[in-house]
Amino acid sequence: MAVRDPRDVAAFTDFADTHGAELFRTAYLVVGDHQLAEDLVQEALVKTYVAWARIRDHGKATSYARKAVVTTAISWRRRRSFHERPQLALPESPAADPVDGVGLRDDLWRELASLPPRQRAAIVLRYYEDLSESRTAELMGCSVGTVKSQVSAGLTRLRLRADTDVFATGTEGRTVTS
Description:
Helices cover 65% and strands 0% of the residues. By secondary structure, it is mainly α.
């Protein structure tokens, strides 16, 4: 290892002190984890220090270090071990089969299609499109009370036809109320 000029060491130290917070902010935004961002900044500063003698314009060292942050983060993400997380216990049961959800969605859409058009429109606009009652009423050309009654009647019909209580919840775990 080559002996460094004391002026280079001082210049790099000033650089690291001055731009460390900026590099940390960039690293945190790239990886989204506080501790990982700290490690990433340290790695980028080591790479910048190694290249310090080759960096002609020390005013552009920030760009070099920022690029080192980004390229190092990308290479870390590509490693298989990056995505492995230790677990205290292994899961007991296998994950749910996504094919089961497809059949359930098909059943739901078939039942939804069997509803009268205004009930179907009210349910789709309220829960699938996630519109407010007033916006749904505006789009359907009726009152808010009509939207409420159409949604209530439609959900009641869906629940009566369902073998299970699966239609009692809306998409993404939201409870559907009438």
